[in-house]
Amino acid sequence: VKIFAPNIEQRDVVNHLKGSPTEEKRNVLVESARLARGNIQDLAELKAGEFDAVIFPGGFGVAKNLCSWAVDGKNCTVNEQVSSTLQAFHSAKKPIGLCCISPVLAAKVFPGCEVTVGQDKDVDGRFPDAETASAIAELGCKHICKNVNESHVDKANKIVTTCAFMCKAPLHEIFDGIGTMVQEVLKLA
């Protein structure tokens, strides 16, 4: 297992204690290294031939830095290195795992694919970003409704997705969903 991130500037830096942006500038690779405890490489160095699968986490980092979904929604652009990485694994028929908001990357890069970001309706306030499912459908992809503890496997494209924090749920349910995504990716590898 190796961890990669693009060597680019973050769109913005957020003070998560206050929930507001700061004037600070940070680099995605440097910030990712903090989370990975330094054991990380530049995404430009990733070679699909050296790996059995790729998994992308989610979160605002994806929506702001790996693509422009946070600002542009379905009209977003995907970072070129991210798009190239996804295409390389797809072309090699290797599985791709995506959780939280990162299934939108597949929706932009692989028209017609099947993904989940949870539900397409805000059920009991648990899916406040349910409109993301509609945007995915507008991109020509099929959104599959799943609960937070489940994942969806698009067998034709070897793409496995789960909604994670797109659902307001207890952490153990999010953990279970991510676990099923990882298990399904490994089955396809």
From TrEMBL:
SUPFAM superfamilies: Class I glutamine amidotransferase-like. It comes from the Eukaryota. InterPro entries: Class_I_gatase-like. This is GAL3A protein. It comes from Nipponia nippon.
